[in-house]
Amino acid sequence: LPQSQQAERVWQALFVERSPLSEHCRGIVSSLNALGLAEELASRDLGAIRKWYSNQAADMFTEKVMRLSKIKYVVSSHSPFFAHVQLQACLHPPPRPPRYHAALEIDALLEGDWDSVIRTLSQVSEPLSLRGV
């Protein structure tokens, strides 16, 4: 099933056919209320909620969520030893919004996952040594 249909089935099962009692469901209810979607939630109108989300500008929405949740900044970790895409993000990081910070994840190095470390160093033609890391 396409992701949108999967979401509709989950919505139907968790919010329409029964009251949202689980902690996860209550978190969604709290979040939608905080975003000003109490009316749409009360009517269990997934279409209206989707419409509201589709009309949000990503940067403004992110700022609103961070303000409502009282988050000063977000830290995103990147592992250069996980996948080629991650490696490229570490070597050539994209511009970040001011409230986003990056952290380098070095678990593979600390845990001794030498196969991953050597594969990564080889991909970027770095010496297979601590200097290469």
How would you sum up this structure, described in words?
The chain has 133 residues and is mostly helical. It has eight helices and two strands. The chain has a two-stranded parallel sheet with strand order 1-2. The longest helix is centred in the N-terminal third of the chain and has 14 residues, at 3-16. The protein starts with a helix and ends in a 10-residue tail after the last helix. The relative contact order is 0.08.
Shape: elongated
Distance between the termini: 43 Å
Low-confidence stretches: none
The counted number of beta strands is: 2
The largest beta-sheet arranges its strands as: 1-2
Helix tally?
A: 8
Alpha-beta content class: mainly alpha
Q: Strand-and-helix sequence, N→C? A: HHHHHEHEHH
Strand content: 5-15%
- Fraction of residues in H or I helices: 40-55%
The major sheet is characterized as: 2 strands, parallel
Nearest-integer average pLDDT: 88
Radius of gyration: 21 Å
